[in-house]
Every structure is written in C-alpha cells, then in structure tokens.
Amino acid sequence: MAQLRKGKLNYRCPSCFMRDLDIDMFYNKDTGIYSCIRCQYRGDEKDVLEKNEMVRFRYGAMHERITKFDFD
Question: Which residue in 17, 3, 55, 11 sits closest to 32, CA to CA?
Fold first, then answer.
C-alpha cells in the first residue's frame, strides 16, 4: 500500500494483517501510539514491529516450490 504522506513510516496493522487485510495505521505524534483505522488495535512502534514479525512467518515459504509431499 502506498504511504499517504511524507514523514514517519506507516506500518501495517498486525491484527488486520493476520486476516489478510493490508491496512495502514495512523501515528499520533503526541502519544507515540499507532492506531488502526479499521479495528481497535493500538500500540507503540516496538509492539507493532514485533507482532508484524510474528505474522510474517506465515509467508516464509512463499517463494519455494514444494514438489515432494511426505504424507505416508
């Protein structure tokens, strides 16, 4: 998603990202808190980055071609 304005980098909402929605979060300069425009998620930069890393493991094998399935 494109960033709306210059300045501090916009992050994806971890809660929405888990549901495959790509929603940017708003940053409040006074409090230092990021908040989602779609759901109730709020958190500081450390919390947002930490939760986005947890979600990214889901797409870890996206660029690998899986040819062998060992279900037996």
Answer: 11
